[in-house]
């Protein structure tokens, strides 16, 4: 396929911890199908270390995928941002482009679609949603819930005093947000729940589906299945794997790296998606 800046072939995912990341596997599978000679690695970069890492990159670098704790750290270094980054204050994708004799750093958020597309594939459009956690991914989960039709959202946090940014975001999105402590979870039931907590962190919590159509989207995938996901499934609910989100957000990143538009479909995107899902042990299509 044709793409700009063909000499820029280096990509990587950054974050801390990062050794478990399957992003290199997903991206490599996609670039093999697309026939583009990109190399994709991983680098441990903690909060406060992103500026130095980017400053050391050579002219062969095309872009970066960002995970915790860098999705907000990156904002000051972006020359251009998509409307979703401006709305949420969160970017998980950075592309470097040669424009007019200088390097432009562009940022995008593909996490929202990473949640939306798997849920839509199930045909599940919730009127209400529950989110666990208050970090950068929780902001994307809130926006995703709104796109999926939720008008009422419950947010469970260990420390409810830290809910301020998400409360402000809910006002901008026009959704009702109820902030609750995680110790009030027991006995509550949920039709659509997104856990943005790190792998295993939700395991001690009592998460109950409201019925057989209820969906738990656990963004963790290492280890998998989490105990929380197993209990939800045993109670009759449906579960989406964190790898479903990882795959879909990676497709948006690949679009952005290649075209500068995270909404522009890839050539034979269905084949790309199949190869990516199979590379990480997922079935060819989304099931729950």
What does this structure look like?
- It contains 9 helices and 14 strands.
- By secondary structure, it is α/β, with parallel strands linked by helices.
- The chain has a 6-stranded mixed beta sheet with strand order 2-1-3-5-6-4. The protein has a 6-stranded parallel beta sheet with strand order 9-8-7-11-13-14, sandwiched between helices.
- A hairpin with a 2-residue loop joins strand 5 and strand 6.
- The two termini are 34 Å apart.
Q: Would you kindly provide a brief summary of this structure?
A:
By secondary structure, this protein is of the alpha/beta class. The protein contains 9 helices and 14 strands.
- Give the CA-CA distance, first to last residue: 34 Å
Share in β-strands: 15-25%
Counted by DSSP, the helix tally is 9
Order of helices and strands: EHEHEEHEEHEHEHEEEEEHEHH
**Low-pLDDT sequence parts:** none
Dominant shape: globular
- Estimated helix fraction: 25-40%
Mean pLDDT across the residues is: 95
The whole-angstrom Rg is 19 Å
What is the strand tally? 14
Give the key terms.
six-stranded mixed sheet, single chain
